[in-house]
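Progress against Task 2.4 (sequence-to-structure conversion) is shown through the following example record, which the project officer requested during the mid-term review.
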Amino acid sequence: MEEFDPDEVFGWINNILVFKNEPLDEVMARLERAYGIRFILPDSAAGRIKITANFRNVSFKIVSEALRKTTGFTFTQTGGTGGVKSILFSRKPQDTFK
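Structure tokens generated for the chain above:
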């Protein structure tokens, strides 16, 4: 029997996000709800990457940077006059040797 973690279930009320071995596509869906910003993955294979992380009262920029370091993806922000509307993650281009 797994131990109940109230932060994992109710933490969003207090700006706490807890992910325990969750697929990245599910993580992105929860981040979208939490920040009101669209998080976009490069492909469906990326959505299967498992993530374990805890975020407490941090901005979407810090979360995006943590995901960049964890996955090795790069990201760009898109938006307009109203602020950031989406964050697009992409795979790093492969190093080329001449």
